[in-house]
Structure formats: structure tokens, C-alpha cells
Design brief:
eight-stranded mixed sheet; six-stranded mixed sheet; 397 residues
């Protein structure tokens, strides 16, 4: 069984081809700057040389899918001889609104829902749909599966997902918290239960997905009960370039002072804020640490603000679940940065959270980083969203 996983962003397409017999990656790559100036593609086949940043003609996502197919079939850099070897395609799709709480095989109804949610995910849903339709056209007969970023969070109770705004806006426009990074939260919470040897029917897990985009979820007995991102990924934690929670009145205030439209201010809050905005240095935590070590006060402030917000959110979810058995760190920062993990956990010492300093220095693999006598297990679980999508796809076909 071979499964192709596609992750279409607004101007990019990431792909991985899996051999599901042993869950190995046969090839992976990325098409970038789709529809922009100087589009490029990188392709890495397993066990042989591929190509990097190759200049290609890629006016739209359909052309990108075509190039992916050509690369997979290519005599030199390819890994299969016919597209019929691919049993299904799993697509990461951003938003399903309230329609789906699990992955689904794509049919006309599913495509209608993805289209209906264009307003909720204006950058991603249209690209996701184009990716699906390109596969339908270029790989006729091969099933497509939609794996939604929002699906895992659909089990949240009303009290967690409702916003305290006039109820009619929920009724008329489905305005509520949805949450994102669902594939990661689902994968990591399941691995945390397995790897941490928790009782699946009696477990309270907090997943801290700390990357450039960052979110936290509270998971009781395998079901999400709360998460930090909202109607859009802007809510919640401070991120690389997103502001996270702020007083909504700030939007109007900046708009008035700077003579900007709401759209322009939201663009600033999404792309120019977060640790990048506060530090003026970078959205990358490695750059922040370097600057901070060189005495840059704003870089230190940005890091401290980020950690403080993570710790407050974790604390809030411990209250929401009335306890916690396990805290799992994942994504770029969560998997790799022991200092960040230790900084978050230092706020939780009153709960009896104790880190094993030696273990916490390690990175990038599944591990228990708390001590034997810690009241809460603390884990590192590297996320693998592509593999999770491939598994879901396989399960559905
Ligand atoms: P996304 O998928 O949201 O783009 P990632 O999960 O790839 O983000 O995380 C990227 C971030 O992880 C980088 O911006 C960087 O700050 C952080 N990161 C990655 N590796 C390290 C490391 N070794 N030490 C500290 N931070 C790291």
C-alpha cells in the first residue's frame, strides 16, 4: 500500500509518499512560490539524490501536483513506475467548520463543505480544494481523503468553544472556537498515552505544540476538551509572528492611530507580531536565544512572554480538566529546546512537576523527561503530521 500525502498551503505544496507496509518515506518534497515569481521545487527520494530549489513553471496548484507526479515517476529521481501504484491520496485540509469530526473520503458533499468554509480558512481551504481537484483530474479513480486540522477539536464542549458575543452570530455565521493543528494534537496525545503508559480510559493529557505556529490542547480520555487556537489560528499563544490573545479593542486602536483598515491590522497581527514583533529580531527561537545571550533585552522579553503564556495556558487546562497526568511537548521548539521546556515546567513546580535535567538536554526523540517521583509525567513526542495523515487515509480506504 502506497499513500501520497499532500499539504497545500496558500503558495506551497508539501508532499510525502509513504510505503505503508513499514511506514517508510519513499520520497518527499516541496513546491514553493506557486503562482508567484520564480517558483521552485525540491524533491528528495529515499536512497538516491534528488534536486533542490529547482526553478520550475508553476502557475497554480494543479501544475504543482503535475510536477509532483512527474518527479515521482521520473526515471532518475522517481520512486514508482506508474501512478496506479499509489492507492490513495491524503490531503491536509485546514477547516471543516462544524461539519466533520473525523477524516472523510472525498466526494461532492465533502468538496461542498470545504468550499463553504473558504471564509473560515481563506488562505488554505481554496488551495486544499485545488489540490484535491488536481488529483481527481490527474489520478482518476484514486481515492482522496480529507484530513481536517479542525476535526480532532470537535469534541470540545459548548462552554469551551462558544465566544461570549451575541448568540445570533454563532447561529448565523458559525462563529466559535474551532482549533487547529488537530492532526498533531491527535497523534501526539495518542502517542503520549501509549508511550507514557497511561490508561486510555482514565487519562488527562496536555499537548503543547510549540513551533512557529503554536497551540495547546487539553485531552481527556483521548478526546479534546479545549484548545488554544480559535475561529482562526490567531487566538491563544504568542507565536512566531502571531500575537495570540489580545484585547480585541487593540485592532480598532491601531487602525485609527495608523490609518489602516481592519484587514491591514489583522495582517500585522498575523504576520508581524508574536516574538518577531516584540523582539524585532526574528520569529525563530534559535535567533532569539542567540540575541538574548548577546544582551538583547527585547529578545529576552519576547521569550519570557512566550513561556509565561504557555505556562498560564497549561495551568488553565489543568483547572479545566481538574488535574493532569501528562504534559507532552512537540513541534520545532517543543521537541528540540530543553531550555524552553524547563522554563515552562518551572511555573508548575507547585504541582510536583520535576524534570530530569539530563534527559531534558536531549532532543528530537520520544522520551520521558520528568523524574520518577514527578507527580506529572512530562514527555517529548516528536509530531509527524504527514504520517498521521497517511495512517488516517489508510484506515479509511
Ligand atoms: P511550523 O511547522 O509551525 O513552521 P516547526 O514546528 O517546524 O514550525 O517549528 C519551527 C520553530 O522551531 C523554529 O522557528 C524554531 O524557533 C524552533 N526550533 C527548531 N529547532 C530548534 C532548536 N534546535 N532549538 C530551538 N528552537 C528550535
Amino acid at each position: 500500500m502506497k499513500i501520497l500525502v499532500l499539504n497545500c498551503g496558500s503558495s506551497s505544496l508539501k508532499y510525502q509518499l509513504f510505503d505503508m507496509e513499514n511506514e517508510s518515506v519513499l520520497a518527499k518534497g516541496i513546491c514553493e512560490k506557486i503562482g508567484l515569481d520564480a517558483p521552485q521545487m525540491s524533491h528528495t527520494p529515499a536512497g538516491k539524490d534528488g534536486f533542490k530549489d529547482k526553478k520550475v513553471v508553476m502557475p497554480d496548484h494543479k501544475a504543482a501536483v503535475q510536477l509532483v507526479i512527474e518527479a515521482l515517476l521520473d526515471k532518475e529521481v522517481g520512486v514508482i513506475s506508474d501512478m496506479s501504484e499509489v492507492d490513495a491520496v491524503g490531503h491536509r485540509v485546514l477547516h471543516a467548520g462544524m461539519h466533520y469530526s473525523a477524516s472523510v473520503v472525498v466526494n461532492d458533499d465533502v468538496k461542498r463543505v470545504i468550499r463553504e468554509c473558504f471564509d473560515l480558512g481563506p488562505l488554505h481551504n481554496p488551495a486544499n480544494l485545488i489540490g484535491i481537484e488536481a488529483c481527481e483530474a490527474l489520478m482518476p479513480g484514486t481515492p482522496n481523503v480529507a484530513v481536517f486540522d479542525t476535526a480532532f477539536h470537535q469534541t470540545m464542549p459548548e462552554k469551551a468553544y462558544m465566544y461570549a458575543i451575541p448568540y445570533e452570530y454563532f447561529k448565523k455565521y458559525d462563529i466559535r472556537k474551532y482549533g487547529f493543528h488537530g492532526t498533531s494534537h491527535s497523534y501526539v496525545s495518542k502517542r503520549a498515552i501509549d508511550f507514557g503508559k497511561l490508561d486510555p480510559n482514565n487519562s488527562k493529557v496536555i499537548v503543547c505544540h510549540l513551533g512557529n505556529g503554536a497551540s495547546i490542547s487539553a485531552v481527556v480520555n483521548g478526546k479534546c476538551v479545549d484548545t488554544s487556537m480559535g475561529l482562526t489560528p490567531l487566538e491563544g499563544l504568542i507565536m512566531g509572528t502571531r500575537c495570540g490573545d489580545i484585547d480585541p479593542a487593540v485592532v480598532q486602536y491601531i487602525a485609527n492611530k495608523e490609518g489602516k483598515s481592519v484587514d491591514e491590522v489583522l495582517n500585522i497581527l498575523n504576520k508581524k507580531s508574536g516574538v518577531a514583533g516584540v523582539s524585532g529580531v526574528s520569529s525563530d527561537f534559535r535567533d532569539l536565544e542567540k540575541a538574548s545571550n548577546e544582551g538583547n533585552e527585547r529578545a529576552k522579553l519576547a521569550f519570557d512572554m512566550f513561556i509565561y503564556k504557555v505556562a498560564k495556558t497549561v495551568g488553565g487546562y489543568i483547572a479545566a480538566m481538574n488535574g493532569v497526568d501528562c504534559i507532552a511537548f512537540t513541534a520545532g521548539l517543543g521537541e528540540n529546546d530543553g531550555k524552553a521546556r524547563a522554563a515552562v515546567c518551572s511555573y508548575l513546580e507547585f504541582l510536583g512537576v520535576k524534570l530530569d535535567d539530563e534527559m531534558n538536554k536531549l532532543r528530537g526523540k520520544e522520551m520521558v523527561i520528568s523524574t520518577e517521583d514527578s507527580k506529572v509525567k512530562v514527555l517529548v513526542i516528536p509530531t509527524n503530521e504527514e504520517l498521521a495523515i497517511a495512517r488516517e487515509t489508510l484506515a479509511l480506504i
